[in-house]
Design goal:
Strand content: 15-25%
Order of helices and strands: EEEEHHEEHHHHHEHEEHHEEHHHHHE
Radius of gyration: 23 Å
CATH architecture of the largest domain: 2-Layer Sandwich
Number of strands: 12
Shape: globular
Number of helices: 15
Largest sheet: 7 strands, mixed
CATH topology of the largest domain: Cytochrome Bc1 Complex, Chain A, domain 1
Helix content: 25-40%
Structural class: alpha+beta
Strand order of the largest sheet: 1-2-3-7-4-6-5
Length: 427
């Protein structure tokens, strides 16, 4: 069945930002989304899998990221993934998060079928060779050591995650909990992970460019249609209990300056108040007019400070992070941050600053969709976690946030008993 989506729910001023698309679900569960763009001779092809670090066994972490690498090691009929794509003028890459694994490529629209051939072959039958596993294992181990163990502040999230999460699998980063899990990964472990997660019914394929929807659907049926679905996996993740007491951890490392990090539990990406809390992070730390910036400019407690949300699907975090000025005590820096948070919670924002941060979000969302690859990624992400049509309502959700919403959520989220603090001290 093909669904044609043209949302009419946004105010007229947003209509020029609508993304029209067509969608078809194959019999094996693969969802295919097409956004024709006649202005671009380049097609973007994005394949997102519903598997991330949260789906790993706590005793065998880092597998989702390992597969990000293994998927480029060749498949049954294609020994080298990159070469055929390069020969038709394409390029590709991938990334892993705690929620998803995303593979993407751009290539001339006239050569689109090459992309379907490549992606379908490795979904159907990845080449599980001992050589490829060993090569990619060493690549990941080296990345683990370079980026997380031997780089200033590299272990930051390895410290923060288990401080914030005690039960949920967000308690380890995408690279894994420890190097040993990748070092000890067996071929049997790898195959089991692949056949459990890399199935068409757990993926969304999105295509953007100078393409004809029916032709894309035909290619999808031809190349992906024969791949069997798997219905055995049922996601059952440990739920994080409510945090009821303030947590603090202090560490010392050979880094240039002290850094301070304060994390608050918040709702997941699809929850009702997500946009409100996201705007709270912008009010606090986005730009020189933000609430936290006077701690840099006037009080000179920080050399830089900001706030952001994790954007994770399951309940995530709002984070305040900053680098302390030389000689500033952590107690003084943290107290100053809490004063800012308290003021926002008790008084809320004024009309002008709320309008400003909403306008910034709107412009960011609009400009992000100018790029065809971004459109393909975002369509796939929205579809995987709900409905691709939600992409056309995102601005509206931010516009509907009121000052009262901000103050209510600030009071709920920015509580001391909901906070975890990391004092990262320079030796």
């Amino acid at each position: 069945m093909i669904n044609r989506k043209k949302s009419g729910l946004l105010p007229p001023s947003f209509n020029c930002f609508m993304i029209e698309f067509e969608k078809k679900t194959l019999s094996n569960g693969l969802r295919v989304i097409v956004h024709p763009d006649p202005t671009s001779e380049i097609a973007a092809l994005n394949l997102v899998y519903d598997v991330g670090a949260r789906d790993e066994d706590p005793k065998r972490t880092g597998f989702a990221h390992l597969f990000e690498h293994l998927m480029f090691g060749g498949s049954a009929n294609i020994p080298e993934f990159d070469r055929p794509l390069q020969e038709v003028g394409g390029e590709n890459n991938a990334f892993t998060t705690n929620d998803i694994t995303n593979y993407y490529m751009t290539l001339p629209a006239a050569n689109l079928e090459t992309g379907f051939w490549l992606e379908s072959d490795r979904m159907l039958n990845l080449a599980f060779s001992e050589k490829s596993l060993e090569v990619q294992r060493q690549v990941v181990i080296e990345e683990f050591k370079q980026r997380y163990l031997n780089q200033p502040y590299g272990d930051l999230w390895m410290l923060l995650r288990p401080l914030i999460y005690k039960q949920h699998p967000y308690r380890w980063p995408t690279i894994g909990q420890e190097v040993r899990h990748i070092e000890e990964a067996t071929m049997a472990d790898v195959k089991e992970f692949f056949h459990l997660h890399y199935r068409p019914n757990r993926a969304v394929l999105s295509v953007v460019g100078k393409v004809e929807p029916n032709h894309v659907f035909e290619l999808a049926e031809k190349w992906f249609g024969p791949i069997p679905a798997d219905t055995h996996y049922q996601r059952q993740l440990a739920q994080e209990p409510e945090q009821k007491a303030y947590r603090r951890q202090e560490v010392e490392r050979e880094v240039p300056v002290n850094s301070f990090h304060l994390a608050f539990h918040m709702g997941g990406r699809n929850e009702e108040n997500y946009q409100t809390v996201d705007l709270i992070s912008d009010l606090l730390g986005r730009g020189k007019s933000s609430r936290l910036y006077p701690l840099v400019r006037e009080k000179q407690l920080f050399s830089q400070v900001g706030a952001f949300v994790s954007g994770s699907l399951d309940p995530g975090v709002l984070m305040v992070s900053g680098k302390l000025q030389a000689g500033v005590a952590f107690d003084d820096a943290e107290k100053a941050v809490w004063d800012v948070l308290h003021e926002l919670s008790t008084q809320g924002p004024n009309d002008e600053e709320l309008e400003k941060v909403i306008n910034k979000v709107e412009s960011s969302l609009v400009f992000a969709e100018i790029n065809g690859l971004n459109k393909a990624m975002n369509l796939g992400s929205f579809e995987l976690h709900g409905d691709a049509g939600d992409i056309n309502h995102e601005i509206e959700k931010y516009r509907q946030v009121s000052k009262a919403n901000i103050q209510q959520q600030a009071t709920q989220v920015l509580r001391r008993e909901n906070a975890s603090s990391l004092w990262y001290k320079a030796l």
